């Protein structure tokens, strides 16, 4: 079930692949150096999410290790409740990862659209627990569990994505302090060695947010949030929440957001989380097989923030082309696709045309 073994990547890096083999539709996400597109493979007609990463910004943001780490982990991971990778390739300007397309949008987007009831929240958390069980049983800490990194498929099953700062667990990892402050476990924020229970803290924050509408600790930056965590232990009270939520749900969230890792639910392993009374009625085998009808189903219409995703970087970052090409080993290399022949006119309003125009950075040869 969740403890499926790692798989050997069956993608053959010697097979030629490039971005011209895909039809680009619309952007569905955006990060600091990447944009995620909905694409269709022209030959097979299979749809994917294609993560397009601008090499100049990867270098400028010193994110080469993160990019290579994500590709390496996704090459060995495969599970029904994570977003799996299919191809990794590059051209002169960009790195590309083709991954499972999950059309239901991310949890953050859905949280802005509606409040989830307890039944829906339990199903969402159960999906998350199933995915984390797989990662933890294979000695992997995700370290950035947050609503933006959890995506729904069209049916309503939740999947874990974005493995840029995930790590294979090591006993002394006090130097690894990356993450998102609002969801970062106190031991990580305080630069202490940490284990899988750090991911469970983030699960607690997410459930707390679904129940109360806000995170347990708020602040404009990491220091402010850290100071709040150190000043007091926040706990949900019966009077703080809607009467429709059960005491077991409160207990589950409160035990996950314990500041001290040794007191936190999950410190004894994922079975401790699965055996909590709030999740007692979850049929884990049926969930893994996706035989349970999701309690939340995303809209059939657009589930992505297209306005945000269509924004481009415009900081004029420039790098020399020849310094990029020997860094990203493992991404199949192909030269950037040539422009269309002069006798073929391209629709200037097409997504592909806009994408070419919006490369917007210059290489200095």
UniProtKB/TrEMBL annotation:
Keywords: ATP-binding, Kinase, Nucleotide-binding, Serine/threonine-protein kinase, Transferase. Residues 280-343 form the AGC-kinase C-terminal domain. Gene3D superfamilies: Phosphorylase Kinase, domain 1, Transferase(Phosphotransferase) domain 1. Residues 335-365 are annotated as: Disordered. It comes from Blepharisma stoltei. ATP binds at residue 51. The lineage of its organism: Eukaryota, Sar, Alveolata, Ciliophora, Postciliodesmatophora. Belongs to the protein kinase superfamily. It catalyses: L-threonyl-[protein] + ATP = O-phospho-L-threonyl-[protein] + ADP + H(+); L-seryl-[protein] + ATP = O-phospho-L-seryl-[protein] + ADP + H(+). It comes from the Eukaryota. Its EC number is 2.7.11.1. InterPro entries: AGC-kinase_C, Kinase-like_dom_sf, Prot_kinase_dom, Protein_kinase_ATP_BS, Ser/Thr_kinase_AS, Ser_Thr_kinase_AGC. SUPFAM superfamilies: Protein kinase-like (PK-like) (SSF56112). PANTHER family: PROTEIN KINASE DOMAIN-CONTAINING PROTEIN, SERINE/THREONINE-PROTEIN KINASE. Residues 22-279 form the Protein kinase domain. GO terms for biological process: intracellular signal transduction. Pfam families: Pkinase. The keyword Signal does not apply. This is non-specific serine/threonine protein kinase. The keyword Magnesium does not apply. One of its GO terms (molecular function) is protein serine/threonine kinase activity.
